[in-house]
Each structure stands twice: as structure tokens, then as C-alpha cells.
Amino acid sequence: MPMSKVSHPFRLLDLPGEIRNMIYREALGEPPPWSVGSKSFEFDHVQPPLARVNRQVRVESLAVYYGENTLCVQVRSMEDHSRTISKITQVESDEESDEELMFGKENDEEQLSRFRRMFANLLAGVAEPSGVNGLQFMKKLDVVCFCHLKGSSLPNHATIHQFQPNTPKEKN
After folding, report:
1. CA distance linking residue 73 with residue 79, whole number of Å
2. PANTHER family per the record (predicted)?
């Protein structure tokens, strides 16, 4: 049986929005944890390749990617020796207000810098009215910090900070 010739090509954007959202969910899936130590951390996870097709696909796919998933960012310390401490920034943990978390190992400064650049990349497009940034869609972000407790013999400690940037605030 001969195939009939299609008069015009199939276009993703010709599909109804609900079907496109189903395609985005299937294609993007749930994002894996982001590791700040990874060399590709700043760019690869911020904007999945599908979001680079065009502006409309970017808006729609980022709304699914960030809006329907909990993103997990892992901040790890690679150095275990306290002699390598270059700077110390003390952060109070929400769960254990008595304990202070110690950042500042040689690579922690670089990881903090990467973490800041990742958020700058998420915010890319904010200055432009036509731009789209990932944070406008984000519903929940978990930041897992692997650090050393000051004065503890335990080598690592993990603390989870949960952010819900676009949760509507209750009015009093």
C-alpha cells in the first residue's frame, strides 16, 4: 500500500498544550541530584537541551522541569584535612542550632562560587522582558550540604535546607 504524501511537516507546537506537557514530562523526567563539584554543574542541569529548541518550548518545558520536580543540589567537601582550610564561613544549621557547620576547605570556595554561578544562570533572562528564567517556575529546591561539624570527630555531616521559592505566602 503506498504512503500518502504529507502536505506539511509535523510540528511539536501544533499539538495541544496538554499533550506537549505530557511529552515534556516524559522527555525530561525527574532531574538527578546536582553535584556542585561536577565540572558541568553550572550549565548542563540549569537548562536541559530540550529547553534550547526555541522560546516557547523553553517556557513550557522549564515550567514542567522546575515546577513539577524537587531539585536537589549537593554541596560536598572534597578535602578532609583541616590543615587545608583557607577561609572559614560559619553557618548555623536549622536542625541543630547549637552546632556550627564549617565551610572553607580549599575546594569549598570554588564550589560556593559554582553554586552562585548556577543561580546566576537560572536567573538568566530576568533583565530581558522576553527572557525566561528557571527560578520563576521552581516549586521546591533541596540543598544538601556535606560539611564538617566544628569540634566533631565525625568526618562529614549532611544538612538539608529546603526552599520553596514560589510558594504563595499566607496573609495575616
Report:
1. 19
2. F-BOX DOMAIN-CONTAINING PROTEIN
Which of these, 33, 37, 61, 34, lies nearest to 48 by C-alpha position?
61
Q: Where are the beta strands (DSSP E) in 31-156?
A: 34-35, 70-75, 89-92, 100-103, 140-149
For 40-80, the pLDDT digits (tens) are 554 555 678 888 889 899 889 888 887 887 777 665 544 32
Closest Cα to residue 84, out of 100, 114, 108?
108
Conformational region of residue 151, where left means phi above 0, alpha means psi within -120 to 50, and beta covers everything else: left
User: Which pLDDT tens digit goes with each residue over 111-168?
Assistant: 666 666 666 666 554 444 445 556 666 666 666 655 555 555 555 555 555 656 555 5
The pLDDT assigned to 133 comes to 59
Q: Report in angstroms the alpha-carbon separations of 9 from 3, 5, 12, 15, 69.
A: 15, 10, 10, 12, 32
User: In sequence order, which residues have a C-beta less than 8 Å from that of residue 115 and are 6 or more positions away?
Assistant: 36, 73, 75
Query: Which pLDDT score is estimated for 19?
Result: 96
For residue 169, give Cα distances in angstroms to 2, 91, 93, 135, 172. 60, 26, 23, 17, 9
Residue 90 identity = Q
